Amino acid sequence: xxxxxxxxxxxxxxxxxxxxxxxxxxxxxxxxxxxxxxxxxxxxxxxxxxxxxxxxxxxxxxxxxxxxxxxxxxxxxxxxxxxxxxxxxxxxxxxxxxxxxxxxxxxxxxxxxxxxxxxxxxxxxxxxxxxxxxxxxxxxxxxxxxxxxxxxxxxxxxxxxxxxxxxxxxxxxxxxxxxxxxxxxxxxxxxxxxxxxxxxxxxxxxxxxxxxxxxxxxxxxxxxxxxxxxxxxxxxxxxxxxxxxxxxxxxxxxxxxxxxxxxxxxxxxxxxxxxxxxxx
Length: 280
Fold this sequence. Notes:
Blueprint: H1 2-20, H2 29-38, E1 47-55, H3 76-86, E2 93-98, E3 101-107, H4 114-132, E4 135-144, H5 147-167, E5 173-175, H6 180-187, H7 190-205, H8 210-222, H9 227-234, H10 238-252, H11 259-274
Parallel strand pairs: 4-5
Antiparallel strand pairs: 1-3, 1-4, 2-3
Helix pairs in contact: 3-4, 6-11, 7-11, 8-9, 8-10, 8-11, 9-10
């Protein structure tokens, strides 16, 4: 039984690795579909990629006679079992891609909604925290029905993880659909991001309350340019939002109610969060 389980895990790892590194110039998608079918997986079904990153919290001071925090490589089987308990469809492909990383090619049943998938991912992160005291996050890609689409979905899931930790620190589950603009900004060269930031927000970045001003611009744009929703997102009074917006407009000489100005500043704020701009 142990040997059969290990063989099944290795087969799933191979499928996921092949899809993650898929290049149509190197291998035909139909070949991967055929090889997966030999193992009982139909890659033509509608699926979505999910990537889990699991880490050990910073260890507390070691007590006398205590044990060191476990190495992530040593809990690989536990992680696979926990994820497999939630993503238990026979067509779900669950595999460890690296120490602390679990990938899932989840078959989407008819009528499956995004909130349902997000809830399943949260169940995984909660279970890992409760059972093993580990910190887990999840990134979710887009649905796909082809090898090429699954490759993109998996890359999107990894991007969602990478970007989510910077822009949604409190939420353990990140959807690429919520981070498409952020993904595009990261795809632009560092030089282009620096130029946008320096030419758009140099004077704002010189202000001692720049983080607050940056958060205000971000919330203003992501709240649909609605004052009430912006105040709710920032957990501050509307008058404080108005004060900050007036300050931004006075410094830049442009109105935040003008969409092009607001979006240029928004992109500059994302570039700043990603790290960029010239230190002056």
